[in-house]
Amino acid sequence: MSRATTRRKFLRDGALILTAGVCAGRVGLANAAPPVAADATQKPALRLGLLTDCHYADRDPAGARIYRESLGKVREAVDRFNNAGATLAVELGDFIDAAPDIQQEIGFLKAIENEYARFRGKRHYVLGNHCVHALTKQEFIDHCGMKAAHGSFDHGDFHFIMLDACYRQDGVPYGRQNFEWTDSNIPSAEMEWLAADLKATNKPTLVFVHQRLDVDNHYGVRNRAAVRKLLENSGRVLAVFQGHNHMNDHKLIGGIHYCTLTAVVEGRGQENNAYALVDIYPDGSLRIDGFRKQSDYRWDAPALKQPAAAKS
């Protein structure tokens, strides 16, 4: 990150603290922040909030992972999303970390969900490997606002896909410590669903997944090349948002942006928080405003395939 960018982000993120008293009196939020200014040339069609890898747990730090502080960090992010007028929020997995037993794990999930549930728009979730380290997928779903392990929905003129890569190579779903985190896959049934879902939409599409689809190391989904081919062949996908790697990264592959967000859990203090607001413009261009340790991006509209003409 350049020195100029660092200074700009410091000044902007500092406004969250400096303006809190003024904004709190107006909107009733202790950590309120002013909305991010829209692009001067056009108004975004949709604004959404993104965060990943909270790893919340009531446990002592391990290295740079400050588990307990994720509650306050998510509180800050949700205040920012609400004040900026985001209508959707997506957490990209590893919402919680490990507990000694299942009931404590559910307690961790309920605690972090209480903070996320303060978001005034629609909340969405991606399963991460830590979400189902001790729990089953259904137990995770039952104790938060998640509806299904993978799925899709339309919001306005855009289509959104949530993928679940928490499967072993033999097709067995993660749960109850039955997996190695490096063995991440999207199984054949979900691949068939994805192909059909992409074929059924004519809308510009964003994809969300925990493990990465753009790297050839242990952070990547094993059948990533096949997944990317489906996305590319659809001609509808603008971008893929990922977590898991706890770092800022961006790659452009086959005309699709792959954006990895840095983790909420890494580092002590609010200055080490990380989250983003994504503005989606009518032409398909994207503006990602990162806060604290999260990077910014500006992506021009891609050349998407035109929808097939309806038969008379």
Task: Describe this entry's structure for a reader.
It is a single chain. The chain has seven helices and twelve strands. With 312 residues, the protein is an alpha/beta fold. The chain has two domains: 1-34, no CATH class; 44-299, Metallo-dependent phosphatases (Purple Acid Phosphatase, chain A, domain 2, 4-Layer Sandwich). A hairpin with a 2-residue loop joins strand 4 (151-155) and strand 5 (158-162). The longest helix is centred in the first third of the chain and has 16 residues, at 3-18. The protein is globular and about 50 Å long. The termini are far apart. The model is unreliable at 1-8 and 14-39 (pLDDT under 50).
Key features of this structure:
single chain; 312 residues; alpha/beta; Purple Acid Phosphatase, chain A, domain 2; six-stranded mixed beta sheet
